[in-house]
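ARCHIVE CARD
Drawer: 12
Card no.: 0347
Subject: one protein chain, sequence and derived structure
Cross-reference: see card 0346
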Amino acid sequence: MSGDVVLRVRGLSAGYRTPVLHEVDLDVHGGEFVSVLGVSGSGKTTLLRTVAGLHPAAAGTVSLGGRDLTRVAPQHRGIGLVPQEGALFGHLTVARNVGYGLRRLGRPLRAMRVADLLGRLDLDGLAHRMPHELSGGQRQRVALARALAPEPAVVLLDEPFANLDAGLRATVRADVVATLRVAGTAAVLITHDQDEALSVSDRVAVLHEGRIVQDDAPERLYGAPASEWLARFVGAATLLVGESDGAVVRTALGPLRHAPGAPGVVTAVVRPEQVGVGEGDASAHVTGVEFHGHTRVVRLLLPDGTVVLARVPATGTLPRPGDPTTVAVTGTVHVLHRRAL
């Protein structure tokens, strides 16, 4: 971990007319970037609002640096917040927005802090602009600068890139993450975007129906999901049921190796990049090919009706829908015993 636990959530429950969060536990270490990933309605925004103090907790605690914040007002929590829309003060300039939380500082120190943050976030020359004169990406950078200005221990980001177009989203996200890394500020990103969560986070906590169902490093979340639901949710996967002898499971794609474990009926999680097209002995028919820039995703139909996805480089001879072919799985697969549904 990057450091001691800065933000600690224990047994947190919250809701409106009905419960939304159910006994959520979450730790965020110093300098760590954690994503809370989930579908719409999973409780992500309620979790963020409750941690920020904008919504009351029905049970459980929120602490920052060992200090219990559960009943503390939002403005006294020492937590920065970047809302989805930026929520800048429309009547204030960029500089005054960023310096809003620094009113106790003397004017020279406040001006230095604001200028430093604007420089770090590529906002030089925009200090006197009004929010309506900024692009969407600039507004999000200003919102982050405002959240960072008081030097909070943790910044909460509520899907801040969701409304940006794809190219701008990647650029702004990279700048925001880099700024947080340099500042050493811990951050919690609320997102429904799996690629976003996996690509920028030290850890990803998946929230499902108000409960965290797995909290892990991105590589482990993708490579060793704790359930079949998670395997389907985090990235594309083909799930194959078969009988394992403890090291090899027999499936519609043939025998597949996995890490040693107990024998029995298991579900093998096969990721598209593990599937080779035109290799092995298992026969299949190509039913579709999707273009994804430097790769193609090939949809294959096995004789028993199983659909398998393969991700192949967009070079050389590519299969076409209707082509007969063969498929093989490379490497080891992750397996789930059938009780982990």
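Annotation on reverse: The first strand starts at residue 5 and ends at 15. Residues 268 and 335 are 4 Å apart (CA to CA).
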